[in-house]
Design brief:
Length: about 250
């Protein structure tokens, strides 16, 4: 079945939500935009804590995309000529009517959210924020199996260790420690320096108390039960999954 690309973006400040509602456009830097950004047919909007109890930590509104063009930031905000990114390229999404989702999509755990590549189908069916991610087929297969086994995991979860940020495929939070589960496509490991980069990352995370499990595409596609024997054993060794304190 053909997927229709969509994008969820954060609305960091109330004045930007005013712009979205009144001027019917949304902007993101081209250099940090997800790959599918230009082709998004719908945008969903995620709201942080500044928006108060009714809206915070949720994707609550959406809009159909009319068109997308690339402009300099100074064209969007001519009054901010001295801004450090004034001459940088931005995607400007021109929008149709801003509408409320039938059911808000909550984030149950505090996390860093910028942009979430998703699909229209997921935007209108997701029950929580992790359901939105439209990542690789390997990650999707692992996530669906985790849900089936009632393993609570955070997808594309950013953690800071030392001075570095790492994006985990799956962060699993347990009573006696935390766990990172990675899905490695076969093509990734033919890239120069990939193994050395993984080793450095694993060592860094482990030195800060994380348990790291990595599974190849072959393991996930052919022996996924064995993958979950290791995952569930590690969860058990870490005292079981910790109860989420739901964000409100």
């Amino acid at each position: 079945m053909q997927k229709h690309p969509a994008l969820v973006g954060i609305v960091p400040r109330k004045n930007l939500w005013d712009v979205i509602q009144e001027k019917k456009w949304y902007h993101i830097p081209v250099e940090s935009a997800p790959k599918n950004a230009r082709f998004a047919e719908y945008l969903g909007f995620y709201f942080p804590s500044v928006f108060g109890e009714e809206m915070r930590y949720k994707v609550k509104f959406y809009a159909k995309v009319k068109k997308v063009n690339v402009v300099k930031r100074i064209e969007l905000f001519p009054e901010e000529k001295e801004h450090k990114r004034a001459d940088k390229d931005y995607f400007q999404f021109h929008l149709w009517k801003i509408e409320e989702l039938p059911k808000p999509i909550p984030s149950f755990r505090w996390r860093r959210i910028v942009h979430i590549p998703t699909s229209c189908e997921k935007l209108f069916s997701a029950e929580e924020i992790n359901d939105l991610y439209d990542a690789s087929p390997l990650e999707e297969k692992m996530y669906l199996e985790m849900k089936k086994r009632e393993i609570t995991a955070e997808r594309q979860f950013y953690v800071k260790v030392g001075r570095k940020f790492y994006c985990l495929d799956f962060g699993i939070f347990c009573k006696k420690g935390n766990m990172d589960v990675e899905c490695d496509g076969e093509k990734y490991h033919i890239l120069p320096g990939a193994l050395a980069k993984d080793r450095e990352r694993n060592n860094e995370l482990t030195s800060f108390g994380w348990c790291v499990l990595r599974f190849s595409g072959k393991e996930i596609n052919q022996t996924i039960k064995n993958c979950f024997i290791k995952i569930e054993r590690t969860i058990g060794n870490l005292g079981g999954i910790s109860k989420i304190k739901v964000l409100t």
